[in-house]
Amino acid sequence: MKESLRMIIVLTFFAALSGGVLGWFNSFTEKRVEMNKLKELQNSLKAVTEMDPKTDAYENIVKEKDFEIYKIISGTQVKAYAIVGEGNGYQDKIRLIFGVKPDFSEIIALKVLEEKETPGLGAKIESPDYLAQWKGKGANSKLELVKTPPKTKYEVQAISGATISSTTVVNIVNKSLERARRIIKEKEEGK
Amino acid sequence: MSRLWKEFIKGWWKENPVFVMVLGMCPTLAVTNSVQNAIGMIGAVTFVLIGSSLIVSLIRKIVPNQVRIATFIVVIATFVTMADRYLAAYYPELSKALGPYVPLIVVNCIILGRQEAFASKNGVIASLLDALGMSIGFGIALMFMSSVREILGSGTWLGMKVLGSWYIPWQVMILPAGAFFVYGFLYWGFRAIDKAFTKG
Question: Complex ipTM above 0.95?
Fold first, then answer.
């Protein structure tokens, strides 16, 4: 009996001590972690919407696990929307953010937030060459994946040897655009 | 003194945790695709190993035998969580690259193995030296692995270009398969050198 009581006391004591230490440690790392997240978000918004962090404000409209919309406001005008979407790539989830003009006519720019695709093949979706072609793609109709250099602004060229990764990126953009268009339309009509 | 020195250096070669004891394979294979990741992992493992060896050697006499593993795990998990939070707060990029492998240090056999085999039976100073020596051994192994993999797989070392533009990166080296190839060859090399020395 005495032995088991000792076991309980020792284990409880160390568990409580561990909790205390971690609580104390968390109290000063948490702020930094939050700050890092915020900074990362601002950098992404800046990269995809040409947002000027000094004069423009942003507002989170939708926040779901796999879908987010941010409204970039410059003064009183809506300058752009930034949309976060995700889908299944070749190995793991691909998560990306892209900016669209407020009338959904064009995509401003696209950035990959997370990917674990094959280095040298699918991972090229993060390469500047590939991302550059997203500038100015049409956002008011479905985008299509092509294997040759694109002829219209509704065509996106695939990366050779990375069909699944390329398809996923286009699908995420199409799906997220459709959803964002619907939500924003509803919001505007709601006003 | 010579005994303590022995405890310190045994982890470098004679009882190298990676190449002799074949422990801690998860980080050895998973995060050695770049030297930077390896350095982050070495730092985290060193911190956790030294911290938990210190605490375990201090408390070894008051912990009942039946709950020793549970207590050691609590101690180790505390240090691992601290390392993980610290990386997330001050090195967000590195923390993202290492992903789940920092929290997974909790189940790294090197750490629990040292507590069970050494720190729970020895004094504070011997345990600290043992932990430091083992961390150095782990560090040597990870630096070898990651250097070979990054140079062959990306043509760079710690992000600096070391092979000219003529070199076409051997991408399989930074993929999981490359980890097994490199580990196999390095293990072979270590054993061969060890054998040659013990014979001579």
Answer: no
